Amino acid sequence: MKVILANHAGYCYGVERAFNIVEVAATSAQRPITTLGPLIHNTQAIDALREERNVSIADSLDEIEEGTVVIRTHGVPPDVLESAEEKGLEVIDATCPFVRSAQKLAAKLVEEGYTLVVLGEKNHPEVIGVTAHAGGEAIVVEDPDEISQYLPLKRVGVVVQTTQQLEKLEKLVRRLLPHCKDLKVQNTICYATVDRQDAARKLARDVQAMIVVGGRHSGNTRRLVDICKEGKVPVHHIETADELDKAAFNDIDVVGVTAGASTPDFIIEDVVRKLESF
Ligand code: SF4
To answer: Cα(278) to centroid of ligand 1, in Å?
Structure first.
């Protein structure tokens, strides 16, 4: 079976950067290093970090007594940073610069007097952080249709979770435009997301089945699954090569592979190798 890997797949700039930051810190650390939440949505990569670098995970600051706390790519509300410093913890902020930019733009829109609308997953840490940086007052919509209950609005400023689909933002703007005199849109979707989604969409047109590799809790991976499903071919969302069943590919000659922004290369390589062996 021929296996084609998408042109853009796997670790993005922000995740690579966060891993490098943690690895450098772990190499010279005299005190414990703890990430606030899993550094990325990938069980295998997190296990490796714990076993090989002795980096542990805490769900909240209450669980961290001493040492260094690492803020992951999604960022955190400002009061979390303040609390960590008050507790005497060393803070390593690995918030992705694209998320940081969304936080700043959201805060600026509120300063300028716009009603802030955030397009994204309500309970996602990135969305919670962006909203908090803007003072906490925001309308958060996961689906553009949800905005109708808040209309009409006078002055609206929009930011987007960095891993959302452009089509959703376009739909939200179409919903808002007829009802807002002053609409300011900051497209904060990151280039890594755009590249991965475009590459997956194109590849899904040229193959007989698509494999999407990535954590089941990873929002950007789930959106890649949705995009691949827009095509006409079967789509399999897996976390590791172990989930691949040869019987499912009996009639397939060409399969495409893509992967979420938090999927390590070694997992993608395992998947490609196993598919090629079918
Ligand atoms: S997906 Fe984009 S915003 Fe998120 S960590 Fe990667 S580069 Fe940063």
So the answer is: 33
Residue 18 near ligand 1, beta carbon < 6 Å: no
Report the interhelical angle of 125-133 vs 97-111 (nearest 10°): 40
Q: Active site includes 85?
A: no
The tokens of 192 are what? 């890594």
Say if residue 161 is in the same domain as residue 207. Answer: no
Q: What is the reported pTM?
A: 0.91
pLDDT digits (tens, 9 = 90+) for 194-213: 999 999 999 999 999 999 99
Say yes or no: CB of residue 98 within 6 Å of ligand 1: yes
Burial class (CB in 10 A: 0-12, 13-18, 19+), 6: buried
Domain-ending residue, one of 59, 80, 97: 97
Tell whether 111 and 93 lie within a shared domain.
no
